[in-house]
Design a protein that fits this description.
By secondary structure, the protein is of the alpha/beta class. It has two domains: about 160 residues, 3-Layer(aba) Sandwich (Rossmann fold), CATH 3.40.50; about 100 residues, K homology (KH) domain (GMP Synthetase, Chain A, domain 3, 2-Layer Sandwich), CATH 3.30.300. A six-stranded mixed sheet has the order 2-3-1-4-5-6, sandwiched between helices. Strands 7-8-9 form a three-stranded mixed sheet. The longest helix is centred in the last third of the chain and has 18 residues. The protein is globular. The N and C termini lie far apart (about 50 Å).
Length: about 300
């Protein structure tokens, strides 16, 4: 029996809302990347660790590719492009129920000349029939010389094992980068602020979701056995602050309750979650705010 161990870093690439974060959560078996129907739901490069027989894949859930309209957008785009240069494999994820568009053509241009294996994952097979899927497979197979094309459903788990089963074949020989019981390198305070942001995204629309930033100001274990967490929610205008708080504070209270419930499950401890809303005009174009919120490295 061979004792060879295979490991490497794998970047998820795709347009917004194709299911990258859903697939990462499915692979890891736990929610570490937030999910919503809004573009830019994922703003950072989220790391998830998958362990298989004699194999470890470190998946990087990159932000969805889109045309940047702010300094934040530019930082998000650079995060994705940088990730492509750091990995041993690239997985381009497309949604079966979406037509091939300009965003996909742009992603294809980024794949040209890559020296690492490139997989195509056609996600959301549960939303289309077999005949339509066959046409999609034929269409996409002509676009690029993919190492593998895997149709699957991140939502239901259908054919996900076929995807993970290919990891030892394509990842190089290497060390076990993370302990088997470690599923992400994201600090707990970062996961907490992303959970809060997700609950707000699910309750807002129009321009408001894109204007929300959340920062964990305090994360402390108290003597009474409770974890005290204080988060500041940043928006760009007073009108957005009113929307986030809601009539008589109902929206903020509901989002806070849902956040607390999920955080308590994550930590396995009782949580007191303290949420504050502040206005920081045009924060998405201010480098010091992007560094404060963790979207840009401190110099």
């Amino acid at each position: 029996m061979s004792n060879v161990f295979h490991s490497g870093f794998v970047a998820f690439l795709g347009r917004p809302n194709v299911g990258k974060s859903t697939l990462l959560n499915r692979l890891i078996g736990q929610k570490i990347s937030i999910v919503s129907s809004h573009a830019q739901t994922t703003r950072n490069k989220i790391t998830g660790v998958w362990n298989g027989p004699s194999c470890q894949a470190v998946f990087l859930d990159t932000p969805g590719m889109h045309k940047p309209h702010s300094r934040l957008g530019e930082v998000i785009r650079k995060t994705t492009l940088d990730a492509l240069d750091e990995v041993d494999m690239i997985v381009w994820i497309c949604a079966c129920d979406d037509p091939l568009g300009a965003g996909d053509r742009y992603i294809l241009s980024l794949l040209q000349g890559r020296k690492v294996p490139v997989f195509l994952v056609l996600n959301k097979v549960d939303l289309i029939g077999r005949e339509a899927l066959a046409k999609k497979l034929d269409q996409y197979s002509k676009l690029y010389e993919f190492a593998e094309i895997i149709p699957l459903s991140a939502e239901t788990g259908d054919n996900v094992e076929a995807f993970t089963g290919l990891m030892p074949k394509y990842l190089p020989e290497g060390p076990q980068y993370f302990p088997e019981d470690m599923i992400t390198d994201q600090p707990e305070r970062n996961i907490v602020q992303e959970i809060v942001r997700e609950k707000l995204l699910l309750r807002t629309r129009d321009e408001v979701p894109h204007s929300i930033g959340v920062y964990t100001e305090e994360f402390a274990h108290r003597e009474n056995g409770m974890v005290y967490i204080r988060c500041t929610i940043y928006v760009e205008r007073e009108s957005q602050k009113k929307i986030i708080i809601g009539k008589k504070g109902t929206l903020l209270k509901e989002a806070g309750q849902d956040s607390r419930d999920e955080i308590q499950k994550l930590l396995g401890e009782p949580v007191f979650l303290d949420l504050w809303v502040k206005v920081s005009r045009d924060w998405k174009n201010k480098d010091f705010m992007l560094r404060e919120l963790g979207y840009k490295e401190h110099r």
